[in-house]
């Protein structure tokens, strides 16, 4: 390890598929560092664990699972409130700086890969459209926005869901303001970004069949623990805002609670959508593999405690 690397505190960033054991690994890393006299705390990078009351469906770590390790960026806002990656990164940056300043190692534990990417590389800062452009887009119907976006930016059109009015409007407004597709601007940003100093990715990999079994078992456990009752309570109280209700597990149970679908069908949809999420995550993990100095482990071959010891021993040896 170079002298410069020695001067920069290493920030472990745990990534891997959903249901792959990231939470357990983050805790084991913190405990292993603590055993070496270096305190550590966890920064959770999850777009839905930030909501209060959304516990079971987001796999929010329980006090027993946290094992005395402080966890940050959990339960920050009500599920009725919007919350962006920029909101998360602002808080994560401040927390990481504060912890490092006090000699505490921040451990970022992924859940939402866009949040992890933002922590590693910063945010894409699109030009701000003018008020006239925003008003023009606002007065269009969603089909009109989609048609215009397909002509202007076929890549963004294909990537953004047809019902996602916010992202469709944003992509179209950026094009109308700049004359450049937002997908082109994002590619330029990705190619130009440098890595945050001092981070080290710790990745978990799983065979598809093995992670799918874990996903199915997790969903079964969530239902048995009371996920339906959790979602019903939030729904009946009017606490699920537009963003929060998109969370897997919550979105699929709402048709059942509204009397439009049977429970077994809703549960099966949760499993299907979670497996689909796992497939999408594999694309993200290929990108994270390109991060320098990353270390990767097979989750089906290594226990989280053993991985933590390997990582910490190497850090102190270096």
Please characterize this protein's 3D structure.
By secondary structure, this protein is α/β, with parallel strands linked by helices. It has two domains: 245 residues, P-loop containing nucleotide triphosphate hydrolases (Rossmann fold); 61 residues, Histone, subunit A, CATH 1.10.20.140. Helices cover 54% and strands 9% of the residues. A six-stranded parallel sheet has the order 3-2-4-1-5-6, sandwiched between helices. Helix 2 packs across helix 15. The N terminus is likely disordered.
Q: Report how far apart the termini are.
A: 6 Å
Share in helix: 40-55%
Counted beta strands: 6
CATH class of the largest domain: Alpha Beta
Sheet having the most strands? 6 strands, parallel
How much β-strand is present in the residues?
A: 5-15%
Taking pLDDT < 50 over at least 5 consecutive residues as the criterion, the unreliable ranges are: 1-8
What's the helix-strand series?
HEHEHEHEHHHHHHEHHHHEH
The CATH topology of the largest domain corresponds to Rossmann fold
Number of helices: 15
Whole-number mean pLDDT: 90
Strand order of the largest sheet: 3-2-4-1-5-6
Oligomer: single chain
How would the blueprint of this fold be written?
Layout: H1 3-7, E1 11-15, H2 22-35, E2 40-45, H3 63-66, E3 71-72, H4 85-101, E4 105-110, H5 113-121, H6 131-138, H7 142-152, H8 154-159, H9 165-178, H10 182-192, E5 199-205, H11 208-225, H12 227-236, H13 254-257, H14 263-288, E6 295-298, H15 304-317
Parallel strand pairs: 1-4, 1-5, 2-3, 2-4, 5-6
Helix pairs in contact: 2-15, 4-5, 6-9, 7-9, 11-14
